[in-house]
Amino acid sequence: MPSDADQNVKQAVPFFMVTDIEASLRFYIDGLGFSIEQEWRPEQSEGRIRWCWLALGGAALMLQEYWKDGRPGGAPEGVLGQGVSVCFMCSDAIGIYKDLVRRGIDARRPFVGNGLWVTSATDPDGYRLDFESPTDAPEETEYSGED
Known about the structure:
Number of domains: 1
Strand content: 25-35%
Mean pLDDT: 93
Shape: globular
Radius of gyration: 17 Å
Low-confidence stretches: none
Helix content: 10-25%
CATH class: Alpha Beta
Structural class: alpha+beta
Largest sheet: 4 strands, mixed
Order of helices and strands: HEHEEEEEEHEEE
Strand order of the largest sheet: 1-4-3-2
Number of strands: 10
CATH architecture: Roll
């Protein structure tokens, strides 16, 4: 039986804390093709974006820069995105791969895992983004680069 939450919850949106929002925006906008849908630029940040909602197709994610003592800073030690992977389900992961490479992103050559073509890229803070699409190609097939 459906609950109120079944009708109420609409979308999960990953929220990444980042160390340099300008570098992250270059990666997500210029490299991956996301667009800024919403942003927050408080006065004390001198017009610098501190938080934003990005979208690509039907997917979204949010970024916010660590801030301490009135300026960027305060991130924890170590790689922020270690162990974090967000999977974007696509129509054509190989097409995404080609587009990422064309945009200068170091994307992993597509391979088949769990009945899906998978390519991935890692953002400046170590968050891994997987782009996946269904396939009937055999498991562990690697994309040859030929069409």
